[in-house]
Write a structure and sequence with these properties.
Blueprint: H1 3-17, H2 19-26, H3 29-40, H4 50-62, H5 79-93, H6 98-107, E1 110-111, H7 116-119, E2 124-130, E3 134-141, E4 146-154, H8 162-172, E5 181-185, H9 193-213, E6 222-225, H10 227-234, E7 237-238, E8 241-242, H11 246-253, H12 266-274, H13 277-298
Parallel strand pairs: 2-5, 5-6
Antiparallel strand pairs: 1-6, 2-3, 3-4, 7-8
Helix pairs in contact: 1-9, 8-9, 10-13
Length: 308
């Protein structure tokens, strides 16, 4: 097994070990009992994936579930699939739980989900953007909307071994400010070597932060924000192409955006405007990842989707 696989597996295991805490925050004991009964009675909604249903039913024939987390023992069933199964059962069984349903929709914009009890502890938000040749970050106090840090580090790795990437991450991580949670962008499909490098750096960085700064936490301190959140709030893409977000950030700095009122220290404004365009773009991406997380995940701002 490669070193990257070990790191990613270590991070995944930390997420798995906290799955029960998240489920306790999201589902009541009555809802969990209902879901367990449906699984053990092999009476799950037929709208679920047939292959997953077959695996689940084969498992419960040999051993009945005692907790929802027992499903994670089945190959191909991870926390995200488990959440989908639970949501589908409840939505099918009881259409009156609209409030609970809406809360789950908000939580689905970030992985792992952020429970209501956890949100009150997330004050200092560190958001990190992996660019083509920069790692940029911001630290924002979500209570008083103060921008505390806004910086970046360049890296020159176009291609290299896993050890080169590890060494680069080890040099950069000490510069990244400590936060109550670290927000990264969800990894994409890796259509080219730049995307591949971003995914590689994201996997290593998230595992490194979780391992070095999250050992004593009850929940994962690294969260992956779905691109749809930032795209929807700030029109970050047109079709499949990314667009510049620098103008959006300038509007926030100049206080033209009523939805994103941030307190910018003058030295951080100067750092942004004096940087070269490619660096400003990466800094903008990091800043808007943080404001997207605060607005939608913590404060429950509604996204407006236009469907045909």
């Amino acid at each position: 097994m490669s070193m990257l696989s070990v790191l990613v597996r270590k991070f995944d295991l930390k997420c798995f070990s906290t799955c029960q805490k998240f489920l306790q925050r999201i589902y009541s004991s009555q809802e969990k009992e209902l879901i367990l009964n449906k699984i053990n009675e092999k009476d799950l909604p037929k709208s679920l994936n047939p292959n997953q249903l077959t695996k689940i039913y084969q498992y419960v024939e040999k051993k009945k579930l005692t907790t929802l987390e027992d499903l994670l023992n089945i190959n191909g069933i991870g926390p995200k699939v488990l959440r989908k199964i639970c949501d589908t059962v409840l939505d099918t069984e009881n259409g009156t739980k609209e409030v609970v349903k809406d809360k789950r929709k908000v939580l689905n914009f970030v992985t792992p989900p952020i429970g209501e009890n956890q949100k009150k502890d997330l004050i200092d938000i560190t958001a990190i953007h992996i660019g083509a040749d920069h790692i940029s970050w911001v630290l924002i106090n979500s209570l008083n909307k103060s921008l505390l840090e806004w910086d970046f580090k360049e890296y020159m790795l176009d291609k290299g071994s896993i050890y080169d990437f590890l060494s680069m991450i080890e040099r950069i991580v000490p510069h990244i400010p400590h936060g109550h949670i670290y927000v990264l962008e969800e990894m994409g499909s890796g259509r080219n070597h730049i995307d591949y490098n971003r995914n590689l750096i994201t996997a290593i960085l998230s595992s490194y932060i979780q391992g070095s700064r999250g050992e004593k936490k009850e929940f994962p301190i690294v969260a992956f924000l779905k691109p749809v959140v930032k795209n929807n709030l700030y029109k970050a893409t047109i079709g499949s192409e990314r667009v510049s977000l620098q103008n959006q950030v300038v509007s926030i700095i100049e206080e033209k955006s009523s939805a994103d009122c941030l307190n910018f220290p003058q030295e951080l404004k100067t750092k942004f405007f004096s940087s070269k365009p490619s660096t400003r773009e990466d800094m903008a991406q990091a800043l808007l990842s943080a404001t997207s997380f605060i607005n939608v995940i913590l404060n429950g701002r509604t996204l407006n989707f236009v469907r045909p």
